[in-house]
Automatic annotation (TrEMBL):
Record membrane topology: Multi-pass membrane protein
Molecular function terms from GO: NADH dehydrogenase (ubiquinone) activity; quinone binding
Superkingdom to which the source organism belongs: Bacteria
S-adenosyl-L-methionine listed as a keyword: no
EC code: 7.1.1.-
GO CC terms: plasma membrane
Positions of transmembrane segments: 6-23, 30-51, 57-77, 89-107, 141-162
Record Pfam families: Oxidored_q3
Keywords (A to Z) from UniProt: Cell membrane, Membrane, NAD, Quinone, Transmembrane, Transmembrane helix
InterPro entries xrefs: NADH_UbQ/plastoQ_OxRdtase_su6, Nuo/plastoQ_OxRdtase_6_NuoJ
Major subcellular site: membrane
Protein known as: NADH-quinone oxidoreductase subunit J
Reactions catalysed, as given in the entry: a quinone + NADH + 5 H(+)(in) = a quinol + NAD(+) + 4 H(+)(out)
Amino acid sequence: MELLFFYLVALVAVLSGIMVITCKSPINSAISLVMTFFCLAIFYVMLHAPFMAAIQIMVYAGAIIVLIIFVIMLLNLGTAVQARTSHCIAWGSVVGALMMLLAMTFLKGGETTTVQGEITKEVVAQVGHTELIGQAMFTNFLLPFEIASILLLVAIVGAVVLTKREV
């Protein structure tokens, strides 16, 4: 039954992901992106990571989508005449998705470890999801975390520059 539910959620996630790139209206693409984020949150719950599911919904399905819709409304992309969606982009995304599926099917990943050793159910029950995420973020992944913060700062400055109007 769990496998059937997984396949159902995966089908919805893939279909909503396809709708993100094929919808002509940017608002419809943003709504499809919200559905994809909710499907990812369901996957986190299925992996016994409720904290990550809550963060997925609060940060991505909440704040990021509000920001995207704000920018769409600010730039009037909903009323602009849009060119027809290129079929090369759609087929390229399908080919890329098939390649990822083949890679995930035939390649096996390495073991996930932390400073203390392998992450097991006992370690998660003893330490907790939040502490393990914080420990990994500020020890093993400190450089990518800082790079992401710099990219967010650049995006904020870019949004301010785009919205500044000449008087």
